[in-house]
Design brief:
binds NADP nicotinamide-adenine-dinucleotide phosphate; eight-stranded mixed β-sheet; alpha/beta; oxidoreductase; 10% strand; plastid; protochlorophyllide reductase activity; NADPH-protochlorophyllide oxidoreductase; chlorophyll biosynthesis
Protein backbone atom coordinates (compact mmCIF):
# COMPACT_ATOMS: atom_id res chain seq x y z
CA UNK A 1 0.00 0.00 0.00
CA UNK A 2 2.80 2.37 0.83
CA UNK A 3 4.27 1.65 -2.56
CA UNK A 4 0.99 2.34 -4.28
CA UNK A 5 0.53 5.57 -2.44
CA UNK A 6 3.97 6.75 -3.41
CA UNK A 7 3.65 6.02 -7.12
CA UNK A 8 1.90 9.13 -8.25
CA UNK A 9 3.89 11.58 -6.18
CA UNK A 10 7.12 10.11 -7.49
CA UNK A 11 5.92 10.32 -11.05
CA UNK A 12 4.83 13.87 -10.54
CA UNK A 13 8.02 15.00 -8.92
CA UNK A 14 10.06 13.48 -11.70
CA UNK A 15 7.97 15.30 -14.24
CA UNK A 16 7.46 18.54 -12.45
CA UNK A 17 10.53 19.31 -10.40
CA UNK A 18 9.52 22.64 -8.98
CA UNK A 19 6.21 21.41 -7.64
CA UNK A 20 7.40 18.10 -6.32
CA UNK A 21 6.87 19.04 -2.74
CA UNK A 22 3.26 19.99 -3.21
CA UNK A 23 2.62 16.86 -5.20
CA UNK A 24 4.11 14.66 -2.54
CA UNK A 25 2.05 16.27 0.15
CA UNK A 26 -0.98 15.82 -2.01
CA UNK A 27 -0.53 12.09 -2.00
CA UNK A 28 -1.81 12.09 1.52
CA UNK A 29 -5.13 12.74 -0.04
CA UNK A 30 -4.91 9.97 -2.40
CA UNK A 31 -3.77 7.06 -0.45
CA UNK A 32 -7.13 5.38 -0.34
CA UNK A 33 -6.19 2.00 -1.63
CA UNK A 34 -8.28 -1.01 -2.39
CA UNK A 35 -7.28 -2.82 0.75
CA UNK A 36 -7.74 0.32 2.82
CA UNK A 37 -11.21 0.66 1.45
CA UNK A 38 -12.13 -2.89 2.06
CA UNK A 39 -10.95 -3.02 5.67
CA UNK A 40 -13.80 -4.23 7.74
CA UNK A 41 -13.40 -1.41 10.23
CA UNK A 42 -15.69 0.39 8.71
CA UNK A 43 -37.99 7.46 16.07
CA UNK A 44 -37.00 8.95 19.08
CA UNK A 45 -38.69 10.08 22.17
CA UNK A 46 -37.45 13.24 21.01
CA UNK A 47 -39.83 15.61 22.36
CA UNK A 48 -41.44 17.86 19.85
CA UNK A 49 -41.28 21.07 21.72
CA UNK A 50 -40.59 24.72 21.47
CA UNK A 51 -38.14 24.42 24.26
CA UNK A 52 -34.75 25.84 23.39
CA UNK A 53 -31.83 23.53 23.82
CA UNK A 54 -29.53 24.08 26.71
CA UNK A 55 -26.56 24.83 24.52
CA UNK A 56 -24.20 25.28 27.43
CA UNK A 57 -24.82 21.73 28.61
CA UNK A 58 -21.65 19.98 29.66
CA UNK A 59 -20.35 16.78 28.16
CA UNK A 60 -22.21 13.75 29.27
CA UNK A 61 -20.58 10.41 29.69
CA UNK A 62 -22.04 8.82 26.60
CA UNK A 63 -20.57 6.78 23.82
CA UNK A 64 -21.82 6.27 20.27
CA UNK A 65 -25.18 4.94 21.06
CA UNK A 66 -28.61 4.07 20.07
CA UNK A 67 -31.49 6.43 19.59
CA UNK A 68 -33.70 6.92 22.63
CA UNK A 69 -37.27 5.65 22.72
CA UNK A 70 -39.56 7.35 20.30
CA UNK A 71 -42.86 9.13 20.33
CA UNK A 72 -42.53 10.24 16.74
CA UNK A 73 -43.92 8.57 13.69
CA UNK A 74 -41.61 5.80 12.55
CA UNK A 75 -39.83 6.15 9.20
CA UNK A 76 -42.13 3.38 7.93
CA UNK A 77 -44.98 5.88 8.07
CA UNK A 78 -43.33 8.09 5.51
CA UNK A 79 -46.01 7.58 2.85
CA UNK A 80 -48.18 9.93 4.83
CA UNK A 81 -45.39 12.32 5.61
CA UNK A 82 -44.56 15.68 4.16
CA UNK A 83 -41.31 16.01 2.23
CA UNK A 84 -38.20 16.20 4.37
CA UNK A 85 -36.22 19.43 4.27
CA UNK A 86 -32.47 19.04 4.02
CA UNK A 87 -29.86 21.78 3.86
CA UNK A 88 -26.71 20.79 1.97
CA UNK A 89 -23.80 23.24 2.12
CA UNK A 90 -21.55 23.42 -0.93
CA UNK A 91 -24.16 21.84 -3.19
CA UNK A 92 -22.94 23.67 -6.29
CA UNK A 93 -20.45 20.97 -7.24
CA UNK A 94 -18.92 17.59 -6.46
CA UNK A 95 -20.26 15.56 -3.57
CA UNK A 96 -22.76 18.20 -2.47
CA UNK A 97 -24.36 18.47 -5.90
CA UNK A 98 -24.47 14.70 -6.39
CA UNK A 99 -26.12 14.31 -2.97
CA UNK A 100 -28.63 17.07 -3.69
CA UNK A 101 -29.50 15.42 -7.00
CA UNK A 102 -29.90 11.96 -5.47
CA UNK A 103 -32.18 13.25 -2.72
CA UNK A 104 -34.19 15.51 -5.03
CA UNK A 105 -34.81 12.65 -7.46
CA UNK A 106 -36.53 10.59 -4.78
CA UNK A 107 -39.29 13.22 -4.67
CA UNK A 108 -39.26 12.79 -0.89
CA UNK A 109 -36.83 15.57 -0.12
CA UNK A 110 -36.80 19.30 -0.60
CA UNK A 111 -33.14 20.24 -0.89
CA UNK A 112 -31.93 23.64 0.22
CA UNK A 113 -28.68 24.15 -1.64
CA UNK A 114 -26.66 26.49 0.62
CA UNK A 115 -24.03 27.94 -1.71
CA UNK A 116 -21.68 30.90 -1.94
CA UNK A 117 -22.27 31.37 -5.68
CA UNK A 118 -26.01 31.56 -6.26
CA UNK A 119 -25.92 31.46 -10.07
CA UNK A 120 -23.38 28.65 -10.20
CA UNK A 121 -25.63 26.58 -7.96
CA UNK A 122 -28.74 27.34 -10.03
CA UNK A 123 -26.91 26.38 -13.21
CA UNK A 124 -25.52 23.22 -11.61
CA UNK A 125 -28.96 22.12 -10.43
CA UNK A 126 -30.41 22.76 -13.87
CA UNK A 127 -27.58 20.95 -15.64
CA UNK A 128 -28.03 18.01 -13.27
CA UNK A 129 -31.69 17.85 -14.29
CA UNK A 130 -33.09 18.54 -10.83
CA UNK A 131 -36.80 19.31 -10.90
CA UNK A 132 -37.57 22.86 -9.78
CA UNK A 133 -40.07 21.79 -7.15
CA UNK A 134 -37.46 19.71 -5.33
CA UNK A 135 -34.85 22.35 -4.47
CA UNK A 136 -34.09 25.98 -3.66
CA UNK A 137 -30.76 27.76 -3.73
CA UNK A 138 -29.94 30.00 -0.78
CA UNK A 139 -26.85 32.13 -0.38
CA UNK A 140 -24.33 31.02 2.24
CA UNK A 141 -20.69 32.05 2.40
CA UNK A 142 -19.02 30.02 5.12
CA UNK A 143 -16.03 32.37 4.96
CA UNK A 144 -18.10 35.00 6.74
CA UNK A 145 -19.77 34.52 10.12
CA UNK A 146 -22.18 37.34 9.23
CA UNK A 147 -23.22 35.40 6.15
CA UNK A 148 -23.80 32.28 8.25
CA UNK A 149 -26.06 34.22 10.61
CA UNK A 150 -27.89 35.84 7.70
CA UNK A 151 -28.43 32.44 6.12
CA UNK A 152 -29.92 31.07 9.34
CA UNK A 153 -32.21 34.11 9.65
CA UNK A 154 -33.32 33.79 6.01
CA UNK A 155 -33.93 30.07 6.36
CA UNK A 156 -36.06 30.63 9.46
CA UNK A 157 -37.98 33.33 7.65
CA UNK A 158 -38.85 30.86 4.93
CA UNK A 159 -41.02 29.07 7.50
CA UNK A 160 -39.76 25.64 6.49
CA UNK A 161 -38.96 23.17 9.21
CA UNK A 162 -35.42 21.76 9.15
CA UNK A 163 -35.06 17.99 9.27
CA UNK A 164 -31.48 17.31 8.16
CA UNK A 165 -28.39 19.51 7.95
CA UNK A 166 -25.42 18.37 5.86
CA UNK A 167 -22.16 20.27 6.43
CA UNK A 168 -20.38 19.35 3.21
CA UNK A 169 -18.65 22.44 1.73
CA UNK A 170 -14.88 22.64 1.91
CA UNK A 171 -11.82 24.36 0.52
CA UNK A 172 -8.37 22.86 0.10
CA UNK A 173 -5.15 24.76 -0.69
CA UNK A 174 -2.44 22.11 -1.01
CA UNK A 175 0.09 24.25 -2.88
CA UNK A 176 -0.53 27.63 -1.24
CA UNK A 177 2.62 29.31 -0.03
CA UNK A 178 0.75 31.91 1.98
CA UNK A 179 -2.45 31.67 3.98
CA UNK A 180 -5.64 33.40 2.96
CA UNK A 181 -8.26 34.56 5.43
CA UNK A 182 -11.99 34.59 6.00
CA UNK A 183 -13.87 37.86 6.52
CA UNK A 184 -13.37 37.35 10.25
CA UNK A 185 -9.62 36.88 9.93
CA UNK A 186 -9.33 33.11 10.35
CA UNK A 187 -7.07 31.00 8.15
CA UNK A 188 -9.37 30.04 5.27
CA UNK A 189 -9.35 26.21 5.38
CA UNK A 190 -10.19 25.91 9.07
CA UNK A 191 -12.32 29.08 8.89
CA UNK A 192 -14.60 27.68 6.17
CA UNK A 193 -14.46 23.93 6.73
CA UNK A 194 -14.71 24.02 10.52
CA UNK A 195 -15.61 27.41 12.04
CA UNK A 196 -18.25 28.43 9.48
CA UNK A 197 -19.89 25.03 9.77
CA UNK A 198 -19.53 25.04 13.55
CA UNK A 199 -21.55 28.26 13.83
CA UNK A 200 -24.10 27.05 11.28
CA UNK A 201 -24.62 23.72 13.04
CA UNK A 202 -24.69 25.23 16.51
CA UNK A 203 -27.44 27.63 15.43
CA UNK A 204 -29.46 25.14 13.39
CA UNK A 205 -29.42 22.30 15.92
CA UNK A 206 -32.23 24.26 17.59
CA UNK A 207 -34.26 24.04 14.40
CA UNK A 208 -33.58 20.32 14.08
CA UNK A 209 -34.74 19.91 17.65
CA UNK A 210 -38.19 21.34 16.96
CA UNK A 211 -38.77 19.49 13.70
CA UNK A 212 -41.65 17.00 13.76
CA UNK A 213 -40.04 14.79 11.12
CA UNK A 214 -39.29 11.25 12.29
CA UNK A 215 -35.76 11.37 10.99
CA UNK A 216 -33.60 14.29 12.11
CA UNK A 217 -29.91 14.28 11.39
CA UNK A 218 -26.87 16.50 11.49
CA UNK A 219 -24.10 15.24 9.23
CA UNK A 220 -20.58 16.66 8.96
CA UNK A 221 -18.49 15.29 6.09
CA UNK A 222 -15.14 13.97 7.34
CA UNK A 223 -12.15 12.51 5.56
CA UNK A 224 -9.71 9.65 5.71
CA UNK A 225 -6.88 12.16 5.41
CA UNK A 226 -7.51 13.54 8.88
CA UNK A 227 -7.27 10.05 10.37
CA UNK A 228 -3.72 8.99 11.15
CA UNK A 229 -4.84 5.40 11.67
CA UNK A 230 -4.96 5.08 7.85
CA UNK A 231 -2.34 4.98 5.15
CA UNK A 232 -3.61 8.20 3.62
CA UNK A 233 -3.61 9.92 6.98
CA UNK A 234 0.01 8.96 7.53
CA UNK A 235 1.49 10.69 4.54
CA UNK A 236 3.03 14.02 5.50
CA UNK A 237 1.98 16.53 6.50
CA UNK A 238 -0.11 14.64 9.04
CA UNK A 239 -3.10 16.14 10.80
CA UNK A 240 -2.22 17.23 14.32
CA UNK A 241 -4.08 19.79 16.38
CA UNK A 242 -1.40 19.82 19.09
CA UNK A 243 -2.48 21.80 22.14
CA UNK A 244 -4.70 24.07 19.98
CA UNK A 245 -2.58 27.13 20.70
CA UNK A 246 -3.06 28.55 17.19
CA UNK A 247 -6.83 28.06 17.35
CA UNK A 248 -6.95 29.67 20.79
CA UNK A 249 -5.03 32.62 19.30
CA UNK A 250 -7.59 33.07 16.50
CA UNK A 251 -5.73 31.44 13.58
CA UNK A 252 -3.92 34.46 12.20
CA UNK A 253 -0.40 35.81 12.21
CA UNK A 254 -1.29 38.85 14.30
CA UNK A 255 -2.22 36.76 17.29
CA UNK A 256 0.24 33.95 16.78
CA UNK A 257 -0.23 31.28 14.16
CA UNK A 258 -2.42 30.44 11.19
CA UNK A 259 -2.28 26.76 12.12
CA UNK A 260 -4.28 25.11 14.90
CA UNK A 261 -1.16 23.59 16.47
CA UNK A 262 0.72 26.89 16.32
CA UNK A 263 3.10 25.78 13.54
CA UNK A 264 4.10 27.28 10.19
CA UNK A 265 1.37 27.63 7.57
CA UNK A 266 0.87 24.49 5.50
CA UNK A 267 -2.22 24.40 3.29
CA UNK A 268 -2.45 20.61 3.03
CA UNK A 269 -2.15 20.21 6.80
CA UNK A 270 -4.67 22.99 7.45
CA UNK A 271 -7.24 21.02 5.41
CA UNK A 272 -6.54 17.79 7.30
CA UNK A 273 -6.68 19.60 10.65
CA UNK A 274 -10.03 21.10 9.64
CA UNK A 275 -11.35 17.61 8.90
CA UNK A 276 -10.23 16.41 12.35
CA UNK A 277 -12.22 19.34 13.78
CA UNK A 278 -15.24 18.26 11.68
CA UNK A 279 -15.09 14.72 13.06
CA UNK A 280 -14.48 15.86 16.65
CA UNK A 281 -17.36 18.34 16.37
CA UNK A 282 -19.78 15.65 15.22
CA UNK A 283 -18.89 13.51 18.25
CA UNK A 284 -19.15 16.43 20.64
CA UNK A 285 -22.61 17.25 19.24
CA UNK A 286 -23.52 13.62 19.86
CA UNK A 287 -22.33 13.71 23.46
CA UNK A 288 -24.03 17.00 24.21
CA UNK A 289 -27.33 16.65 22.38
CA UNK A 290 -28.19 13.17 21.21
CA UNK A 291 -29.73 11.90 24.41
CA UNK A 292 -31.69 15.09 25.00
CA UNK A 293 -32.95 15.55 21.45
CA UNK A 294 -32.80 12.19 19.66
CA UNK A 295 -31.09 13.88 16.72
CA UNK A 296 -28.68 11.55 14.93
CA UNK A 297 -25.18 13.02 14.53
CA UNK A 298 -22.93 11.39 11.95
CA UNK A 299 -19.79 11.86 9.91
CA UNK A 300 -18.50 9.93 6.94
CA UNK A 301 -15.69 9.32 4.53
CA UNK A 302 -17.41 9.11 1.13
CA UNK A 303 -14.40 7.59 -0.69
CA UNK A 304 -11.81 9.21 -2.92
CA UNK A 305 -13.81 11.34 -5.37
CA UNK A 306 -10.81 12.27 -7.44
CA UNK A 307 -12.67 14.33 -10.05
CA UNK A 308 -14.22 17.04 -7.86
CA UNK A 309 -13.41 20.72 -7.66
CA UNK A 310 -11.71 20.14 -4.32
CA UNK A 311 -8.48 19.69 -6.25
CA UNK A 312 -8.90 22.85 -8.33
CA UNK A 313 -5.98 24.59 -6.61
CA UNK A 314 -3.60 21.79 -7.42
CA UNK A 315 -1.09 21.75 -10.28
CA UNK A 316 -2.62 20.75 -13.64
CA UNK A 317 -0.49 17.63 -13.95
CA UNK A 318 -1.73 16.38 -10.63
CA UNK A 319 -5.32 16.98 -11.63
CA UNK A 320 -4.71 15.06 -14.83
CA UNK A 321 -3.08 12.03 -13.21
CA UNK A 322 -4.94 11.81 -9.92
CA UNK A 323 -8.20 10.27 -11.21
CA UNK A 324 -6.55 7.47 -13.25
CA UNK A 325 -4.11 6.87 -10.40
CA UNK A 326 -7.01 6.30 -8.01
CA UNK A 327 -8.98 4.30 -10.56
CA UNK A 328 -6.32 1.93 -11.81
CA UNK A 329 -3.54 1.87 -9.21
CA UNK A 330 -5.10 2.20 -5.77
CA UNK A 331 -8.62 1.34 -6.97
CA UNK A 332 -9.89 3.72 -4.30
CA UNK A 333 -11.72 5.88 -6.83
CA UNK A 334 -15.38 6.66 -6.25
CA UNK A 335 -17.46 8.55 -8.79
CA UNK A 336 -19.30 11.70 -7.76
CA UNK A 337 -22.55 9.88 -8.42
CA UNK A 338 -21.65 6.96 -6.16
CA UNK A 339 -20.33 9.26 -3.42
CA UNK A 340 -23.57 11.28 -3.65
CA UNK A 341 -25.56 8.10 -3.11
CA UNK A 342 -23.48 7.32 -0.04
CA UNK A 343 -24.05 10.71 1.55
CA UNK A 344 -27.73 10.58 0.59
CA UNK A 345 -27.89 7.24 2.36
CA UNK A 346 -26.53 8.81 5.56
CA UNK A 347 -29.22 11.50 5.17
CA UNK A 348 -32.19 9.27 4.55
CA UNK A 349 -31.62 5.56 5.16
CA UNK A 350 -33.89 4.57 8.06
CA UNK A 351 -31.37 1.94 9.13
CA UNK A 352 -28.55 4.44 9.74
CA UNK A 353 -29.99 5.90 12.93
CA UNK A 354 -27.00 5.24 15.14
CA UNK A 355 -25.57 8.50 16.41
CA UNK A 356 -21.92 9.42 16.92
CA UNK A 357 -20.80 7.26 14.01
CA UNK A 358 -18.20 7.82 11.27
CA UNK A 359 -19.48 5.89 8.24
CA UNK A 360 -17.40 4.41 5.46
CA UNK A 361 -18.12 1.98 2.61
CA UNK A 362 -16.39 -1.19 1.49
CA UNK A 363 -15.67 -2.15 -2.12
CA UNK A 364 -19.17 -3.51 -2.50
CA UNK A 365 -20.59 -0.14 -1.42
CA UNK A 366 -21.86 -1.53 1.87
CA UNK A 367 -21.71 0.95 4.73
CA UNK A 368 -19.85 0.16 7.93
CA UNK A 369 -18.93 1.99 11.13
CA UNK A 370 -15.34 3.03 10.74
CA UNK A 371 -12.73 3.65 13.43
CA UNK A 372 -11.46 7.17 13.89
CA UNK A 373 -7.84 7.89 14.77
CA UNK A 374 -6.87 8.49 18.39
CA UNK A 375 -6.83 12.25 17.91
CA UNK A 376 -10.04 12.38 15.88
CA UNK A 377 -11.86 10.48 18.65
CA UNK A 378 -10.30 12.16 21.69
CA UNK A 379 -13.19 13.44 23.85
CA UNK A 380 -11.01 15.91 25.75
CA UNK A 381 -9.77 17.44 22.53
CA UNK A 382 -13.31 17.54 21.16
CA UNK A 383 -14.46 19.44 24.25
CA UNK A 384 -11.61 21.91 23.94
CA UNK A 385 -12.14 22.43 20.20
CA UNK A 386 -15.83 23.04 20.92
CA UNK A 387 -15.17 25.57 23.67
CA UNK A 388 -12.51 27.50 21.74
CA UNK A 389 -14.66 27.46 18.59
CA UNK A 390 -17.63 28.83 20.53
CA UNK A 391 -15.51 31.81 21.55
CA UNK A 392 -14.16 32.39 18.05
CA UNK A 393 -17.61 32.42 16.43
CA UNK A 394 -19.09 34.65 19.14
CA UNK A 395 -21.25 32.11 20.94
CA UNK A 396 -19.40 32.27 24.25
N1 LIG B 1 -13.06 14.77 -3.21
C1 LIG B 1 -12.66 13.85 -2.35
O1 LIG B 1 -11.94 12.92 -2.69
C2 LIG B 1 -13.11 13.91 -0.92
C3 LIG B 1 -12.69 12.88 -0.05
C4 LIG B 1 -13.09 12.93 1.28
C5 LIG B 1 -13.90 13.94 1.71
N2 LIG B 1 -14.29 14.92 0.85
C6 LIG B 1 -15.12 15.99 1.38
O2 LIG B 1 -16.26 16.12 0.56
C7 LIG B 1 -16.79 17.43 0.71
C8 LIG B 1 -17.13 18.02 -0.64
O3 LIG B 1 -15.94 18.16 -1.38
P1 LIG B 1 -15.88 17.92 -2.95
O4 LIG B 1 -14.83 16.91 -3.18
O5 LIG B 1 -17.24 17.70 -3.48
O6 LIG B 1 -15.29 19.33 -3.45
P2 LIG B 1 -15.94 20.49 -4.35
O7 LIG B 1 -16.51 19.94 -5.61
O8 LIG B 1 -14.88 21.53 -4.47
O9 LIG B 1 -17.12 21.04 -3.48
C9 LIG B 1 -16.89 21.94 -2.44
C10 LIG B 1 -18.10 22.81 -2.30
O10 LIG B 1 -17.85 23.72 -1.22
C11 LIG B 1 -18.25 25.00 -1.65
N3 LIG B 1 -17.58 26.06 -0.90
C12 LIG B 1 -16.27 26.37 -0.87
N4 LIG B 1 -16.07 27.45 -0.11
C13 LIG B 1 -17.28 27.84 0.36
C14 LIG B 1 -17.73 28.90 1.17
N5 LIG B 1 -16.88 29.83 1.67
N6 LIG B 1 -19.04 29.00 1.45
C15 LIG B 1 -19.93 28.10 0.95
N7 LIG B 1 -19.57 27.08 0.14
C16 LIG B 1 -18.25 26.95 -0.14
C17 LIG B 1 -17.89 25.05 -3.12
O11 LIG B 1 -18.55 26.12 -3.73
P3 LIG B 1 -18.15 26.65 -5.22
O12 LIG B 1 -18.84 25.72 -6.16
O13 LIG B 1 -18.72 28.02 -5.24
O14 LIG B 1 -16.68 26.60 -5.31
C18 LIG B 1 -18.37 23.69 -3.54
O15 LIG B 1 -19.77 23.71 -3.77
C19 LIG B 1 -15.75 18.21 1.51
O16 LIG B 1 -16.16 18.29 2.85
C20 LIG B 1 -14.51 17.36 1.40
O17 LIG B 1 -13.66 17.53 2.50
C21 LIG B 1 -13.92 14.93 -0.46
Amino acid sequence: MALQASLLPSALSALKEGKANGALKESAFLGVSLSENSKSEFGSSVFISNKRLNLSVGIRAQTAATTPAVNRASPDDKKTLRKGNVIVTGASSGLGLATAKTLAETGKWNVIMACRDFLKAERAAKAAGMARENYQVMHLDLASLDSVRQFVAAFRQSGRPLDVLVCNAAVYFPTAKEPTYTADGFEMSVGVNHLGHFLLARLLVEDLNVSDYPLRRLIIVGSITGNTNTLAGNIPPKANLGDLRGLVGGLNELSGSTMIDGGEFDGAKAYKDSKVCNMLTMQEFHRRFHEETGITFASLYPGCIATTGLFREHIPLFRLLFPPFQKYITKGFVSEEEAGKRLAQVVSDPSLTKSGVYWSWNNYSASFENQLSEEASDPEKAKKVWEVSEKLVGLA
